[in-house]
Automatic annotation (TrEMBL):
This is LuxR family transcriptional regulator. Transmembrane segments: none annotated. InterPro entries: AAA_16 (IPR041664), P-loop_NTPase (IPR027417), Sig_transdc_resp-reg_C-effctor (IPR016032), TPR-like_helical_dom_sf (IPR011990), Tscrpt_reg_LuxR_C (IPR000792), WH-like_DNA-bd_sf (IPR036388). It comes from Streptomyces spinoverrucosus. Signal peptide: none annotated. One of its GO terms (biological process) is regulation of DNA-templated transcription. Pfam families: AAA_16, GerE. The keyword ATP-binding applies. GO terms for cellular component: cytoplasm.
Length: 925
């Protein structure tokens, strides 16, 4: 825009940055950010010239506001010219592109999966010639494409690909959080503005010249465009008379300038411009010249002559001179003119279901079943590709265009359900309210949608499981009364929601009533819902065969939506096979967070976190949990906020962050217990068990454990009952309750826990080994546990079994024999970051005669009270005597000593005096 015979006025620093950008070896990304008309497009044109001169292949794209809801519309602009390279990709990456661009079926890829495929494609394309990707008006790029472009832009180092984006400062964009390097494009100084104005418009009347400079405020586009407008009979008028009022933003004033030129054109040319503008013809350059389906403007020389269009020098097509020209054309058109243009464009895109449906919807006023059906099909396509937000808009429009009440109600119901899955409960409620009609023509399915949404809201926002249960039971009974005779999607949704609510409630009566209801429905309940029924309710009594059924269900990944994937993942968690399905969750979750089923995405993040905790990826679990917590809080998913806090509390307890663990435990318990949310109250108890075991407070651990289930049995519908098997056994053994410990281990074996899940097999054999009095039997069970193929997948539990085995060996087979198991335990605990457990294992190693390091960190971690108790114990006082002196109970004294021993690297009171003498500095009180 401010180009002057191959030079640019006042842009020396920007040009220097761009020259260095092109000349730099390797790949890189850069964002140019500035106000509309400030010269970003001109700088991008200059960059293209530099890159072309340096033998780069250049591909340009432009964000289009009309396409900002079309998933991957922007990405297609970049990739279409590279289609010839796709044949060189591996099969997996080709399938990714087939799914994204609607050429094949399959599970929509995550941002990471698609981003890696794009990187591979760009690398192939740049293998012979460096590649420059240029995106103008990036703020209008659709969300799906923005996510992928941001992912790719952060990973270009070492490639031969460069990526540049132009963004308007005043418009929010997904690139705002993409963490790409930025170059601010600011307005010109007064001196440079005068220079630019005088070069392009010499001899201006001083009054007009001053007016232009004052109005332009250093904006180059205004400096170039305002003088002709003022010369056109506007001289002598005040700025308020010229532009309506002086406070109007400069881009709108420039649109008035372009509007005057558009009005001077003939009707056919204006119609041609409108079709081009609504279809996103490239601004400034032919951003889409490689797309054969993009509308090509014809017979528009008149518009080019008055400075509204340019000619692409390579393709010869008309292109808009600036994005503001395009937006002005659309704003000036009448509703009838826009509808006519959309109708013409729908015909142009008759082979593109989503694009055709978009234009048909915009061209139609009266109900039209053909258009409504086209929109419904487009919504289904968008949902499959991760565009649930777009699908809601299309389904809502389809409902508006439906020709009968039943079709309208059905489509609004579907829109409501998709909005609910996307975590947009406010929008879902609004859609429910908009479906105010009732009568014989209503869809039977849509009649239960309000209850479904109300149940979702009650559960997610308020944690009111009892209300949610009542509403879902009623909705299912209503459908049965209406005579549902075959499997039905709405019925399946209700059945699955009821079971999810029951899972959180953990209420035995509700589950038993649900089993009766589902039994009465028979074949109307899907095979997947039966998996959820058995895995979510009571895995001890109903979990036989679930693993095999899960494998069969996951084998049909192509047919799985994000909702089914999340539910199956939860079932896999209950039988401890989630790890093998985690890649599916990770492929899905990033896509759904931005434009899809947000609720499912949050839930899948929780599943990923829970699996990361189980397999020992604790740093990654912390990161996932914080991301999940942020999303849940932002979108007011109160239930998921507390679910995530519960898992973060469990993680903190495992890592020895006991104060944080107990703080989270208290927060979760205070919210969940009054609401009767057994899933969370049990998890809170599990936090208490883990924190107490970490501290060596086995009495407290035992009391927490029996709050979940008594020894010797597994409370029905208590999901933590089998999961805390090893905790209860170990706490019982350390508090002298050997009979209860043995009963519990035997009960686990008799209940068939080893056949239900690999983790339950591991800890059942460990519990049997710890509780038997027969050394030969103990060794056999320890071998069963330690040799179990799933052992390495559950490192914390395996390390605990190694530790117990080493202690057993030291007492029965001698110190040397014990060292191998104890070493394995210590190394695993250290790798995981379970500091207290690692210190406990090292203390046992030292007791076995093997020298180990004792960190001074732990030696100086004694609190004042711990040091006082340790000193008194070292002097020979009993726990009772210490308690009398310090006004503490003997159990509290014992708990403190359990924490002191691993900190000092010892296992007995006899070693206290020597250990205390080695503490650096003077800690005496």
């Amino acid at each position: 825009m401010e180009s002057i015979v191959g030079t640019m006025v006042g842009r020396e620093s920007e040009l220097e940055v761009l020259s260095a950008f092109v000349a730099a070896p390797g790949g890189a990304a850069l964002v140019l950010r500035g106000d509309a008309g400030v010269g970003k497009s001109a700088l991008l044109d200059h960059l293209v010239g530099l890159a072309t001169a340096a033998n780069h292949r250049v591909i340009r794209a432009a964000g289009v506001e009309a396409e900002s809801e079309l998933p991957f519309a922007g990405l297609h602009q970049f990739l279409y010219p590279l289609l010839t390279h796709m044949d060189r990709l591996d099969d997996a990456h080709r399938r990714v592109f087939d799914v994204v661009f609607g050429r094949g079926e399959g599970t929509p890829p995550s941002v990471m999966t698609l981003g890696i495929a794009v990187l591979d494609l760009l690398s192939l394309a740049a293998s012979q010639q460096p590649l420059l990707l240029v995106l103008d008006d990036g703020q209008w790029l659709d969300a799906s494409s923005t996510e992928v472009c941001g992912f790719v832009g952060r990973r270009l180092t070492g490639s031969s690909v460069k990526f540049v984006v132009g963004l308007r400062s005043e418009v929010p964009s997904g690139f705002d959080t993409a963490a790409l390097p930025e170059l601010a494009v600011t307005t010109l100084s007064e001196k440079v503005s005068e220079q630019l104005l005088d070069r392009h418009h010499p001899g201006l009347d001083p009054q007009i010249r001053r007016l232009v400079l004052d109005e332009a405020q250093g904006n180059p586009l205004a400096l170039l465009e305002l003088p002709p407008y003022l010369h056109g009979g506007q001289a002598g008028r005040s700025p308020g008379e010229l532009f309506g009022y002086t406070g109007i933003p400069l881009p709108q004033r420039l649109q008035q300038v372009y509007g005057a030129r558009i009005k001077s054109l003939g009707e056919p040319v204006r119609a041609e411009l409108l079709r081009g503008a609504l279809d996103g013809v490239g601004a400034g350059t032919a951003a889409d010249r490689t797309r054969s389906t993009r509308y090509r403007m014809r017979d528009a020389d008149e518009a080019a002559a008055c400075g509204l269009l340019d000619i692409d020098p390579l393709g010869g097509d008309f292109v808009f001179r600036h994005p503001l020209v395009r937006s002005t054309v659309v704003q000036m058109a009448t509703p009838n003119e826009r509808r006519a243009a959309h109708a013409a464009l729908a015909e142009v895109h008759r082979d593109d279901a989503e694009r055709r449906a978009t234009h048909l919807a915009a061209s139609t006023v009266d109900p039209d079943e053909e258009v409504a059906a086209a929109l419904e099909a487009a919504a289904e396509s968008a949902t499959r590709r991760g565009g649930a937000v777009t699908a809601v808009a299309w389904l809502t429009r389809a409902a508006e265009l439906s020709e009968n009440r039943e079709a309208r109600s059905r489509r609004l119901g579907n829109a409501t359900l998709v909005a609910g899955d996307a975590g947009r409960l406010d929008q879902a409620r609004q859609l429910v309210r908009s479906d105010t009609g009732s009568g014989s023509n209503d869809s039977p399915d849509s009649a239960v949608v309000p209850g479904y949404i109300a149940s979702l809201a009650a559960a997610r926002e308020d944690g009111d499981m009892r209300s949610a249960q009542r509403q879902v039971f009623a909705a299912i009974e209503s459908m049965r009364t209406d005579g549902v005779r075959e499997p039905n999607e709405m019925l399946t949704r209700l059945v699955d929601l009821l079971q999810a609510v029951n899972l959180y409630a953990g209420d035995q009566d509700a589950w038993e009533r649900t089993h009766e209801l589902l039994d009465s429905l028979g074949d109307l309940v899907s095979s997947r819902s039966r998996i959820y029924q058995d895995a979510w309710s009571d895995v001890v009594r109903r979990g036989a065969g679930v693993r095999e059924r899960l494998e069969h269900a996951f084998s049909g990944l192509r047919d799985l939506g994000s909702s089914d994937g999340a539910k199956l993942a939860l079932a896999a968690y209950h039988v401890d096979t989630l790890s093998q399905y985690r890649p599916h969750l990770q492929r899905t979750v990033d896509r759904e967070v931005e434009t899809g089923a947000l609720t499912n995405a949050i839930f899948m993040l929780q599943m990923i976190m829970m699996d990361q905790i189980a397999v020992g990826e604790w740093d990654e679990a912390e990161h996932t949990g914080q991301r999940c917590l942020e999303l849940s809080t932002t979108h007011r998913h109160t239930l998921f906020v507390h679910h995530t806090q519960a898992q973060l509390g469990l993680l903190a307890a495992l890592r020895g962050q006991v104060d944080r663990a107990r703080e989270l435990q208290a927060a979760v318990d205070a919210w969940a217990r009054p609401r009767g949310i057994g899933f969370l109250t049990q998890t809170a108890d599990a936090i208490g068990i883990t924190a107490a075991l970490t501290e060596g407070d086995y009495e407290a651990a035992y009391l927490h454990a029996i709050g979940i289930t008594p020894p010797g049995t597994f409370t029905p519908y208590a999901h933590q009952a089998p999961r805390t098997l090893l905790d209860l056994v170990e706490a019982a053994l350390h508090t002298g309750r050997t009979e209860q410990a043995r009963q519990h281990a035997l009960a686990a074996h008799q209940a068939g826990l080893p056949h239900l899940s690999p983790r339950l097999a591991l800890i059942t054999y460990g519990a049997l080994a710890m509780t038997t009095t027969d050394p030969t039997e103990a060794e056999a069970h320890y071998h069963q546990a330690e040799a179990h193929p799933a052992g390495p997948r559950f490192p914390f539990e395996l390390a605990r079994i190694h530790l117990a085995h080493g202690i057993h060996q030291r007492h029965t087979q001698g110190r040397k024999t014990a060292r191998h198991s104890l070493t394995l335990a210590a190394e695993t605990f250290e790798r995981l970051g379970a500091a207290t457990w690692a210190e406990r294992a090292r203390a046992e190693l030292r007791a076995s005669g093997l020298a180990t390091r004792t960190t001074s960190v732990h030696l100086t971690e004694l609190t004042w009270q711990e040091r006082r108790i340790a000193d008194l114990a070292a002097s020979g006082l009993t726990n009772k005597e210490i308690g009398e002196r310090m006004h503490l109970s003997p159990r509290t004294v014992s708990s403190h000593l359990y924490r002191v021993f691993p900190k000092l690297g010892i296992t007995s009171r006899a070693a206290l005096r020597d250990a205390l003498s080695k503490i650096p500095g003077d800690q005496n009180v």
